[in-house]
Amino acid sequence: MNRQAAHDLIVIGGGPAGLTAGLYAGRGGLRAAIVEKLMPGGLVANTERIDNYPGFPEGISGYDLAQRLQAQAARFGAEFISDEAVGITPEPKSFTVPLASKKVLRAKALVIATGAFPKKLGVPGERELLGKGVSYCAVCDGAFFRGQEVAVVGGGDSAIQEAVYLAGLCSKVTVVHRRSSLRAAESLQKLAFRNERISFAWDKSVSAIEGSSGVTGVRVMDKGTGVDEVIPASGVFIYVGYSPNSAVAGSLVKLDEAGHIVTDDNMATSHPGIYAAGDVRRKLVRQIAGAVGDAATAAVAAQHYIENL
Fold it and tell me: What is the DSSP letter of 99?
């Protein structure tokens, strides 16, 4: 026999997508809970500056944006649960969501907004020196390397944005990129190219991270000549893409070959009552503005689903 759901909607993930879903759900009169294992805002909260989110012409820090989104969701009654969802069990007209704390939540519909996690290089020294100079968050760890030389691996928006941030703390920042040109937005490239503390190691692939008790350098190979060299660095910040956090869905929903959740235009997954929003789903553009748009659609679609149960 189906027990009464304690919530109408459970949002799994508290980044921009999750917070927006909670906001729209609450505004629509739904009893909504947002489950986030870390701090509200997700990875965005660790971003030093965001310049491309509409409505903030001077830019805004990721932490400030996350705080504003959380406050707005709370204003419309969203409940915040600091815990980790470890699975989803469908029941007649509802779902149960077990948490790491052993508590179990129940709702009529779900929005999965678990985002993505940084990809690893998979080279010697990366795992062994994690927390000893290897980092995936410049805002979190950059201050430990004040006045020192560091390396940033990657050429996209995140890599260049964090390289510019690190240049304000470190004596030298070397951007290691496997191509001969950056993929970052033109505005970010201009900031980096005119910064005297930032240099570039083009067409280089990382083969190892050197050091024993701490990082001492990054071993790279020139893709054209095959020659190895070590770039001196006390820290290495890795930004080579993200993998979707879709494991919580298990085999309930359809995934693409990379593990992203497949949705239709209304953010509905292959399982009725489960919706997905943000970087966890298959999409072209992975930006905060897109995640927020996804979440608004997902929450409204979930409300229509609940009303028709």
Answer: B
Q: What are phi and psi of 145, to 5 degrees?
A: -115, 25
Q: What are phi and psi of 171, to 5 degrees?
A: -75, -30
Q: How far apart are alpha carbons 230 and 159 in whole angstroms?
A: 20
Residues making up the chain, counted from first to last: 309
Note the Cα 203 to chain centre separation in Å.
Answer: 26
Domains and CATH numbers, the chain: 7-117+242-307 (3.50.50.60), 120-238 (3.50.50.60)
Tokens at 68, concatenated: 């504003």
Active site residues: 137, 140-141
DSSP letter string over 120-169? P---TTTTTTBTTTEES-HHHHGGGGTTSEEEEE--SHHHHHHHHHHHTT
User: pLDDT by residue (tens digit) across 232-279?
Assistant: 999 999 999 889 999 999 899 999 999 999 999 999 999 999 999 999
Which residues, in sequence order, are CB contacts of 282 under 8 Å at separation 6+? 256, 258, 260, 261, 262, 263
Q: pTM here? A: 0.82
Structure tokens at 240: 């080579």
